[in-house]
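C-alpha cells as discussed.
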C-alpha cells in the first residue's frame, strides 16, 4: 500500500545514512539487507519507484530516485526529492541522468554500442511535440522485418529504449520520445540521412529549444 508520505521515508534514510554511505565497507550480507530495506521503504512510499546509489566521491554519494519511465509516477519522484532533508555526504537526484556518450549498454542478451548506432527523426504532423526515431543497428540482418508478436523483438526494442535513456536521461526519454522503430544500419548511413546515435543528446536539446520558440 502506498503511503505517499515522504517524511517516513526520509526519517528512515536519515537514521541509516551513515551505514549507506559506508556501503563498500560492510559485509555482502549487511549490504544486501540494507539495500533491501531501502527498497522496502521506497515501496512503502510509492510502489514502482526504484533507486540507484552512486559510487563514493570526495563530495559523498548520490541517491537517484527513478520511476522507471512510468510518467504517472513522475510526480511522486519529484515530491520525494523535493522534500529531502540536508544530509551530510548525500545528494538526491530525481530521475536517471544521462550517462555520457560512447556507451556500451547490456540488456538481456543484447549489447548496444552507441558509437556503432545511428538515428533518423520520424516527424509527425499529428504529434509535433514528441520525437519519433528510426534507430539503425549494425547487427540486424538487412532483410529484418519487425515482428511485435515475438519476445525477441520486444526485448530488442526495450534494450534500445534503455540505451536511449542512458544517453538523454529518464525524463527526456519518457516525455519526448514517442515512437521508436528499428532498422539495419545502411552501408553509408550518413548519406542515407542518418546521424550518429551519440548526437542524440544535442538533437534533443535542439528539439526542446525549437519547440519553445
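Sequence:
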Amino acid at each position: 500500500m502506498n503511503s505517499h508520505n515522504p517524511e517516513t521515508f526520509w526519517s528512515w534514510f536519515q537514521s541509516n545514512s551513515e551505514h549507506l554511505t559506508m556501503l563498500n565497507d560492510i559485509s555482502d550480507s549487511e549490504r544486501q539487507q540494507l539495500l533491501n530495506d531501502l527498497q522496502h521503504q521506497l515501496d512503502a512510499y510509492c510502489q514502482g519507484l526504484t533507486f540507484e546509489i552512486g559510487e563514493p566521491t570526495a563530495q559523498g554519494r548520490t541517491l537517484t530516485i527513478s520511476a522507471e519511465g512510468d510518467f504517472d509516477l513522475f510526480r511522486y519522484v519529484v515530491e520525494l526529492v523535493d522534500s529531502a532533508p540536508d544530509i551530510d555526504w548525500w545528494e538526491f537526484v530525481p530521475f536517471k541522468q544521462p550517462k555520457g556518450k560512447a556507451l556500451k549498454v547490456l540488456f538481456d542478451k543484447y549489447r548496444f554500442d552507441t558509437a556503432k548506432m545511428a538515428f533518423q527523426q520520424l516527424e509527425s504532423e499529428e504529434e509535433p511535440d514528441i520525437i519519433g526515431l528510426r534507430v539503425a543497428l549494425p547487427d540486424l540482418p538487412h532483410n529484418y522485418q519487425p515482428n511485435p508478436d515475438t519476445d525477441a523483438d520486444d526485448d530488442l526494442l526495450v534494450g534500445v529504449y534503455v540505451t536511449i535513456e542512458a544517453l538523454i536521461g529518464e525524463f527526456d526519454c519518457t516525455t519526448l520520445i514517442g515512437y521508436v522503430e528499428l532498422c539495419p544500419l545502411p552501408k553509408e548511413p550518413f548519406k542515407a540521412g542518418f546521424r550518429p546515435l551519440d548526437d542524440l543528446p544535442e538533437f534533443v536539446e535542439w528539439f526542446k529549444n525549437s519547440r519553445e520558440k
